[in-house]
Design goal:
alpha+beta; 10 strands; 10 helices
Amino acid sequence: MKVCPVLALCVTLFCLGCSSEAADGRSTITDAEIKAVSETLYSLDSNKASASQLITDTQALVSNSQTNSQADLSSQPLFRYLDEKTLFSRPTYAALLNLLDNYHRMTGTSESFSSQQQAEQDTFLKETISNTKLGTELFTFLHSKGVYASEKEFIQDLKMMWFGLYSRNNNKQDSSGFEHVFAGEIKGGKVSGFHNWIQFYLLEKKGQLNYYSHSFDGAWTNYPDVLGMQFMWDGYFKQVGSAMIGSSPEFDLAIYSLCYIARPGKQCRLSLGGKELKIQTYTWDNSSYGNGKKFVASAYPVTP
């Protein structure tokens, strides 16, 4: 087994030091291609909320220096109205709703899944990726770049990177990329992750989440938009929780997965309706799956 010479291109999987990204084509994905495919995904998000289906009231805007004040500056909820009957009856929304109550929010508490809950993970991936034009477009792009040989391989990898368990606290299998990003967690006495608007809406409606203010409002005049929010979740504070607002579950999953696959652990520049959005992803480096692949640690919109 030979060692790749310094500055030489990695040309074989048997070459020590060659990255899996180089081997499967990820390193050939250009910034321009990411922007182009993100525009396509944006245009294909037919399940996003319309202005009549979702009404928000952002209220207090604070500076970055004020985000940790833990002051409730908004007297009303963030979400004034959501057409649940229409949106939540759609297969991708219904699949997400079935997953959100499968987790313990406290890190250090082991997660385990029944056969039904594991089937719900499969259903979510099937509905968001296999059964939408948006998901199919993402696979087609990654397949064309040589990242995945088949849709089956793509779905299997998504399941591991998003739903595979790892330990954030106390050596317990207590976390996953999906739980951290879509459901939210509590670690070290504060909210960790939590970058999904639907989970925010559900918890606010139940009276378990209190919206305080926002420190960033994106340039978009329709959905999806992006907000950076301050809130209290049943006694635990989030200084800046950023999320795309009004996007479909498949859009969130596709955009975060695109950036994680193409730019793992880095900022990823997208173009949505001609406006730039940066997504930051992080890899979980303390454990892995497959042949050294890394789980999603986090993914969220950057809110400067």
